[in-house]
TrEMBL record:
Stated name of the protein: Peptidase S9 prolyl oligopeptidase catalytic domain-containing protein
Source organism: Daucus carota subsp. sativus (Carrot)
Transmembrane regions: 12-38
Record keywords: Membrane, Transmembrane, Transmembrane helix
Database matches in Gene3D superfamilies: alpha/beta hydrolase (3.40.50.1820)
């Protein structure tokens, strides 16, 4: 036994106590920092730490899509080396297959909207073959079009000799409703319905309905209530169902440049300052309305900020909608979405 006593031992004990306190404090700080940097969405929303730059996948994944038209239906697709699954993507109203892909020599009409393109890049990076299809009209319909698309997807999978791979699907808005109905005609391992509660109240849900992930924006309170109800319905039937809630977040001067290909950082800063001056954002950088309800285009035209690059208006508006978090395609939760897909591959 060592007897602690005298001035020397007290000094040693005091020093050890201080060192211990410092070490504990340091560990706590490191833990908090790592938690903020690497936390996953807990269902309460995403933070700015999850925002990725548009070129995150440079030198890792490249767009090399194939585009073809089958019986009037536009298909655009890409298959990575050694694919492990097939992902079918359905756009929302006013969307098209070309929105998911950057413009290349094989797809001159592709426009690469920022959220759509990042979803595809995430998919290719994680070895999912990706198939996108354009709807017949402005939005998807649920009669003959559903049967045509189901047949087209089956044909394409057989043509590419991918029959042995699991099939998953993601649809946003109108595309989410479409995917929820398509799941009764195609055998999906799992599906993701984005900013859509599905058509469950209008259809007979089979017992083998696929695991369903709802990715929604609770600011849309009416849709949130319908998502909550459909979650209960599916779970009561024994269907594996879950949700991810996407919350609003503030803009920063570099945000638009970080998210949109070929948008200069200087222009991003100028737009941020314009939004501040015009009162489009509050003192903390949060959008007061989404991009569709904000006169930011007219204000940018007055300042001639984007006079040489008006083709990028739709890209900017999508990101403003995303920050407002009411109703927009989102790639911010891609890690969780693809982890959901992978956990249900069969």
């Amino acid at each position: 036994m060592i007897k602690r006593g005298g001035r020397f031992s007290k000094t040693l004990y005091g020093s050890a106590t201080i060192r211990g306190t410092v070490i504990v404090a340091f560990v706590v700080v490191v833990f908090l920092v790592l938690t903020l940097l690497f936390r996953e969405d807990d269902g309460k929303g995403s933070s700015l730490t999850t925002v990725e730059k548009w070129n995150k996948f440079d030198n890792v994944v490249r767009f090399q899509p194939t585009m073809e038209t089958i019986n009037g239906t536009v298909l655009i697709w890409q298959i990575p080396d050694e694919p492990k699954a097939v992902l079918f993507l359905a756009h929302g109203c006013n969307g098209k297959a070309e929105n998911f892909w950057d413009r290349t020599s094989s797809c001159l009409g592709c426009v690469g909207l920022p959220e759509e393109r990042l979803i595809v890049l995430h998919a290719l990076f994680r070895k999912f073959a990706v198939l996108t299809v354009s709807s017949f009209g402005r939005c998807w319909s649920f009669g003959s079009e559903k049967l045509v698309v189901a047949g087209t997807v089956k044909w394409w999978i057989e043509e590419q000799k991918l029959e042995k791979l699991p099939l998953v699907a993601l649809g946003a808005s109108s595309g989410g409703y479409f995917v929820s109905a398509l799941a009764t005609d195609l055998r999906f391992s799992s599906i993701t319905l984005m900013i859509a509660e599905g058509l469950f109240s209008r259809m007979d849900i089979p017992k083998d309905y696929p695991p369903t992930l709802f990715v929604h924006m609770p600011k849309d309170e009416d849709r949130k209530l319908r998502v909550d109800e459909n979650l209960k319905v599916l779970k009561k039937m024994g269907v594996d169902a879950a949700e991810i809630k996407c919350m609003e977040f503030p803009l920063s001067p570099a945000f638009l440049a970080d998210r949109i290909p070929n948008l200069d950082r200087k222009i991003s800063v100028e737009l941020f300052k314009l939004f501040q001056e015009k009162g489009f954002i509050d003192k903390n950088g949060f959008m007061k309305n989404d991009g569709r309800a904000t006169r930011w285009k007219a204000a940018a035209n007055e300042r001639k900020i984007l006079s040489r690059n008006k083709d990028i208006f739709n890209h900017i508006q999508e990101e403003l909608n995303l920050a407002f978090a009411y109703h927009e395609m989102t790639s911010l939760q891609s890690e969780q979405i693809f982890s959901w897909f992978e956990s249900h591959l069969k």
